[in-house]
């Protein structure tokens, strides 16, 4: 499980560890098998469910000599009625080797058969720090479905895990480094570019780009006017929404909230909008589109995330707090209806002096979405 992303960790930044995780993420996105070492020095391998195919399961079996199992989030296991609600990761196994088809059917709602689960399927919660938990976390970081087929190397290497991985031509990553990854990334956020970008209705605007050292997606600070650092700044934390912000999708309220925030900050004279690379409440655009398909079957936005195996909201606001700090702002008047943003910013050391409601009327398509936010996510409107 990931470390809680609230305060500055004491951990020194280990750039080599971050690079290893970053390479493993890319390998997992390419559908490669990745070797994972746990704290006890044992080694195994994993492949994401999105890319698992018959040959990938066979390869995993051949490489490790172990019996592949499926690691999913506890959320997904709960949806499958295999576990009570809870957090963490669950290992699903069969007395025989799981097939690629079975893995897809269990992990991916698009493939879920309407019928029964495979006979003999057992579910067991695994420990944080385990290979299974690390593999699911890696898939989630890679913005894939949060599930992986995982196998323990039956014949543990006599040499190091690195030798074993090299012998099988696999990238090796440590479970602990995956768990620390997010917090390390936040701590490496640095300003990399700044420019004046006059906006319609807010001509005195600058955009400052922040990049993490791993080369991951940049977050942007859009600074309107000249906010005084010694005063609480009017601030909006806006999570990226390609469909709403760019295309004007009516499924959500993001486009209006984005343009509305810029207009309101300009009207009040100054402030900052953080445009955070957290598409789909942190699950990524592809998974958000999957969530939309599930919503079209009658589920709400919270259920849809959970059916995919995600939490209703996967966002963390430590990057936002870090950007505010680097820009010199210690206190904010936060434009939001979301109590979680208020709580998390405060926990990350930013003083929230005031909540400024940021409400827009429904548009004929997003009534249900807004109702769910109010009824299930605690949004204040
Ligand atoms: N997973 C998922 N994400 C969605 C859906 N609709 C919108 N989003 C995402 O939700 C985020 C909206 O974020 P915000 O408007 O910043 O946050 P909020 O929680 O509504 O809070 P406030 O607007 O501040 O009150 C964006 O990342 C959107 O891409 C959906 O149905 N499913
Ligand atoms: Zn949106």
TrEMBL record:
Binds 1 zinc ion per subunit. It catalyses: GTP + 4 H2O = 2,5-diamino-6-hydroxy-4-(5-phosphoribosylamino)-pyrimidine + formate + 2 phosphate + 3 H(+). One of its GO terms (molecular function) is GTP cyclohydrolase II activity. Pfam families: GTP_cyclohydro2. Zn(2+) binds at residues 241, 252, 254. Keywords: GTP-binding, Hydrolase, Metal-binding, Nucleotide-binding, Riboflavin biosynthesis, Zinc. The keyword Transmembrane helix does not apply. InterPro entries: DHBP_synth_RibB-like_a/b_dom, GTP_cyclohydro_II, RibA, RibA-like_sf. The keyword Cell inner membrane does not apply. Pathway: Cofactor biosynthesis; riboflavin biosynthesis; 5-amino-6-(D-ribitylamino)uracil from GTP: step 1/4. Its EC number is 3.5.4.25. GTP binds at residues 236-240, 257, 279-281, 301, 336, 341. It is an enzyme of class 3 (hydrolase). NCBIfam families: PRK00393.1, ribA. Catalyzes the conversion of GTP to 2,5-diamino-6-ribosylamino-4(3H)-pyrimidinone 5'-phosphate (DARP), formate and pyrophosphate. This is GTP cyclohydrolase-2.
